[in-house]
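Notebook p. 47: complex prediction with 3-hydroxybutanoyl-coenzyme A.
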Amino acid sequence: MEIKNIVVVGAGTMGNGIAQTAAVSGYNVTMTDVNDEILEKAIATITKSVEKLAQKEVIDPAQKKAALEIETSTDLKVVEDADLVIEAATENPELKLSLFADLDALAPPRAILASNTSSISLTKIGAATERPDKVIGMHFFNPVPLMKLLEVVRGLATSDETTGIIVEVGRTMGKEPVEAMDSPGFISNRILCPMINEAIYAYHEGIGTAEAIDTVMKLGMNHPMGPLTLADLIGLDVVLFVMEVLHRDLGEDKYRPCPLLRKMVDAGYLGRKSGRGFYTYN
Ligand code: 3HC
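Predicted complex, structure tokens below:
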């Protein structure tokens, strides 16, 4: 099946990055969210990003134009014409399962329903629909236009055909698709979030300042950004959510979220998006 029309559900950081990347790769893209304000903000983010990428000649003028032509809607009914739906809504399991039931009812039978979930079981999401063979994880990384990886996550019922199509779409989007089994945190967050959680423990125990911890990992391990800076980029609420899933579903104490992480989320210190996390932002 040829994929032409992609609908991205959710226009936040990940959703707008996915929509932008799909549009510059030649797909017809529509982005949906619950209100116009979020969609306007998403378009402003995309505009800024493609201007920068065009200036650097990473994309050509036609690709920039394609990104500026992304359509938006607050009506989920736009999935009626979709070949592929990529969901990038809030990481809330109940919301996600009910959203997939709605998408299943509205999207044509041929459409593949993908989720950018960072930790919710694709097998469960698939079971909320009548087409679990066409449900799959497309896990992108922030900032989506720059990061090369696409983690392709197969639920128990995901078919080989669906997986093959999504691997191809990932390649067309300029990504390197890597397949992972449907297990808590998949490959990426099974490894990344415990590392970040450990950095938060080190900070909490006063082993080093935030700057010291980040500098050690940047200069000693060649990470492009330190784990606390990265936590601020990802969102502390997302890191906490992933740790809770790992702790609950794998049942081992080594995944216990650091109490400071929990406290910061309770205080609304969510990182860059709230202006404050381990660092402060304007
Ligand atoms: N679009 C276009 N350009 C962008 C951009 C975007 N979305 N985001 C950043 N840039 C540009 C910057 O503006 C900057 O441009 P300039 O050189 O002209 O000023 C350029 O990219 C380089 O950025 P910086 O100078 O700020 O810093 P870096 O050289 O460190 O690069 C980075 C930024 C690519 C984000 C790099 O630091 C990095 O790779 N960090 C790690 C990111 C990471 O690990 N992401 C995964 C998070 S986990 C996740 O998403 C999964 C989830 O499930 C948790």
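Notes: The two ends are 46 Å apart (CA to CA). DSSP finds eleven helices and eight strands in the chain.
Next step: compare against the earlier run before touching the bench.
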